[in-house]
Amino acid sequence: MPDVIVQAFQQAFQLIFSGNPEFYATIYRTLYVSGVGTLLACTWSIPIAAALGLYNFRGKWVIKGFFSALIGVPTVALGLLLYLLMSRQGEFGFLHLLYTVNGIMIGQAILVTPIIVSFTANALSASDTQIRDLARTLGASGMRTNLAIMRETFWSMILSVTAAFNRGFGELGIATIVGGGLVGETNVLTTSIALQINFGAFQIAMAYAIVLMIIVFAVTLIISIIEKLKQREETLKINYKWFTLRWGG
Amino acid sequence: MQGDKIVALLGVNGAGKTTLLRIIAGLDKPDKGTIQFNDKPKSDAELRQIATLVFQRSAMFNRSVYDNLAYGLKIRGAKDTEIKQRLSEALCSVGLTDFEKRKAKKTSGGEQQRIALARAFLLEPKILLLDEPTANLDPNSAAIIERAILSRKNKNTIIVISTHNLTQAKRIGDEVIHIHAGEIVESAPSAEFFDNPKSEVSRKFIDGELDF
Prior knowledge:
The complex is a heterodimer of chains A (249) and B (212).
Chain A (H helix, E strand, L loop, with lengths): L2 H14 L4 H34 L5 H11 L4 H12 L14 H26 L2 H9 L4 H11 L1 H17 L2 H5 L11 H11 L2 H46 L2
Chain B lengths: L5 E5 L6 H8 L10 E3 L2 E3 L1 H7 E4 L10 H11 L4 H14 L15 H14 L4 E5 L7 H13 L6 E6 L2 H7 L2 E6 L2 E7 H6 L4 H7 L6
Parallel strand pairs in B: 1-6, 1-7, 4-5, 5-6
Antiparallel strand pairs in B: 2-3, 7-8
Helix pairs in contact in B: 3-4, 3-5, 4-5, 5-6
């Protein structure tokens, strides 16, 4: 393994345990921006996905195709568009979002919308058609039937939200163009990596990259573990419920 | 159809048995005509309140057996203690005592079909529709299901069972409705249908000479 990578790993671990406030602030800022950005996107993406995945209407496939196509939009192109809209002369210049954390957050929310919409809509429409029939024949209303389908595809939906978070977490274009990478204000992990490369500090850049990857892996791993634990908990819950009903307690 | 009888819906594959059951269950719309219950036409939503369909390939929520069985009762506002009591009886009636805690999807095909049957029994529907409930099951599971179906007779429930199994129809059916190519070709009491079919199509079907 090249020395630079070994040293980068050493530096990464030194950074993690260094107590460097700016480093921790950057990690916190990155998690905050991508986390809130993803949650913000969920507020409109999941209802859109539910409409696309659970109902049939004219033009549905055009809309689905539109969102699917947007998944691959280059972040620099979106960043540039948002820059023009948020700049002082732009349509949304009065909101003063340029070079702010909120600006990056909104940009990332727009960026990840197609991922949540497409993946969730596909998961809902691909759910076993018998689940719909089953809920209906057991007397469920239209809304309850949709809730039953959504419950059956809950973890697929969580997976799409996780993928969206990871996409926002690792993007550079919007963070650079809309956020400006202002040290201590709007810089996130990806802009910090770019900044360190510009300084020629490849080991520190690599250290940031390692931290970035560790967080992405950790988030996905934690979600998988929660999914497994929830399945186990459901079994434990029913055991408890049954014990309580049978023996009192 | 009358409430104290089991009606066997007979026909070859593709005759229209499942389609008819789905229409009666309010899951599909008929191309023309209406479904009447007590001489009154019923909408799809009304049919779903009085009829319950047990599918040929049993469908299960990805939850415990308890949750699967309790689903319909919870919709109807039943309390936990009532659910627990009725649920035990229903599971017992299909030979699955103490299955509440198991994951429904991890049970065998035969057990899933019995769970589906118990789930339908719990709702005490006015019309119980069974779409080939013993298809692809071993003889033991099929016998348990047949016994469970017979136990529901005379409980003011119209039971309609679709099958292409002639011996099963003869064994448990009081009435037989023979469907071919989407049309009812004969409707008669079971003994009469098998001993003296009036329609040539039905005679050929019983003798195994019917071309698809």
